[in-house]
């Protein structure tokens, strides 16, 4: 059987996108991780499955799988590529698209200048809902792991994020600390680990060690979580420009409201693989 796919990326965070509205594809965890292999497969950070809506109030359902084959709740760069994909493939002619994910509904707005703006919903700060083990909700938590102490924010954008401030993102120990904390026991479902350097009241640099992948060129939900934590600490103001290794995202958020993430989504090529 041949599976049709598109290769896309959002700021270098790359995806294989499969239309499961007109195809009927099931991939096991092992098949996904093989396809994600950059030497033996197609290579991607996440696999995105475009599915018909389960709910009449939304246009599509969206499933997201990390390179290790684990299914996740949310993906910011993926959401922008998802919006561009469904328009490009003629699955919709709308420019405002409502999509359910494993954790909630997002609204994708395709803008005339080619940028994609996504209403990612309100960030989740209640520890048990992130999920994060803590006695009470705080802006900054102290984590102790392998005799090291970290001062971190814990934020869910549907998926769990742990963010810490660094003086210089270029020399931050992203691999070592990312690998140490991504499966840290206080995040029972794991976490994406962000390293944030605030450079101005409206600007910051960020690198993210993603759960189930490792460091990526960009993490959309990571940028959202980092902006939220920076704003809560009154170190950043909305709209904030978050500069990732692959490029920048604009994040707009006021406490108590929905968060908007704006940035590009690129189509690279179409292809097919056999199952
Ligand atoms: N790259 C993504 C996030 C993908 C999921 C993440 N690795 C997780 O496990 O939660 C983004 O752009 O948000």
TrEMBL record:
The keyword Isomerase applies. The keyword Amino-acid biosynthesis applies. GO terms for molecular function: diaminopimelate epimerase activity. The record marks 161, 210 as: Could be important to modulate the pK values of the two catalytic cysteine residues. Gene3D superfamilies: Diaminopimelate Epimerase, Chain A, domain 1 (3.10.310.10). Keywords: Amino-acid biosynthesis, Cytoplasm, Isomerase, Lysine biosynthesis. The record marks 269 as: Important for dimerization. Substrate binds at residues 13, 46, 66, 76-77, 159, 192, 210-211, 220-221. Its EC number is 5.1.1.7. The active site is at residues 75, 219. GO terms for cellular component: cytosol. Pfam families: DAP_epimerase. PROSITE patterns: DAP_EPIMERASE (PS01326). Pathway: Amino-acid biosynthesis; L-lysine biosynthesis via DAP pathway; DL-2,6-diaminopimelate from LL-2,6-diaminopimelate: step 1/1. It is found in: Cytoplasm. It catalyses: (2S,6S)-2,6-diaminopimelate = meso-2,6-diaminopimelate. It comes from the Bacteria. Homodimer. Catalyzes the stereoinversion of LL-2,6-diaminopimelate (L,L-DAP) to meso-diaminopimelate (meso-DAP), a precursor of L-lysine and an essential component of the bacterial peptidoglycan. Belongs to the diaminopimelate epimerase family. NCBIfam families: DapF (TIGR00652). This is Diaminopimelate epimerase. It comes from Aliidiomarina sanyensis.
């Amino acid at each position: 059987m041949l599976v049709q796919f598109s290769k896309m990326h959002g700021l270098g965070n790359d995806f294989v996108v499969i239309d499961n509205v007109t195809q009927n594809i099931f991939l096991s965890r092992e098949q996904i991780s093989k396809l994600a292999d950059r030497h033996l497969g197609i290579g991607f950070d996440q696999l995105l499955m475009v599915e018909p809506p389960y709910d009449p109030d939304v246009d599509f359902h969206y499933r997201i799988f990390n390179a290790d084959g684990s299914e996740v709740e949310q993906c910011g760069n993926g959401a922008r590529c998802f919006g561009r994909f469904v328009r490009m493939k003629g699955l919709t002619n709308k420019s405002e698209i409502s999509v359910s994910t494993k954790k909630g509904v997002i609204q994708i707005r395709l803008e005339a200048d080619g940028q994609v703006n996504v209403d990612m919903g309100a960030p989740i700060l209640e520890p048990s809902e992130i999920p994060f083990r803590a006695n009470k909700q705080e802006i900054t938590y102290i984590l102790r792991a392998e005799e090291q102490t970290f001062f971190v924010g814990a934020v869910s954008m549907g998926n769990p994020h742990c963010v810490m401030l660094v003086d210089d993102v270029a020399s931050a120990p992203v691999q070592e600390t990312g690998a140490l904390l991504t499966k840290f026991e206080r995040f029972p479902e794991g976490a994406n680990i962000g390293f944030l350097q605030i450079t101005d009241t409206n600007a910051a640099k960020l690198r993210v060690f993603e759960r189930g992948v490792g460091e990526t060129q960009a993490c959309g939900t990571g940028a959202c979580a980092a902006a939220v934590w920076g704003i809560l600490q009154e170190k950043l103001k909305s709209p904030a420009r978050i500069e990732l290794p692959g490029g920048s995202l604009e994040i707009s958020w006021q406490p108590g409201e929905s968060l908007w993430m704006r940035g590009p989504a690129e189509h690279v090529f179409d292809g097919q693989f056999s199952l």
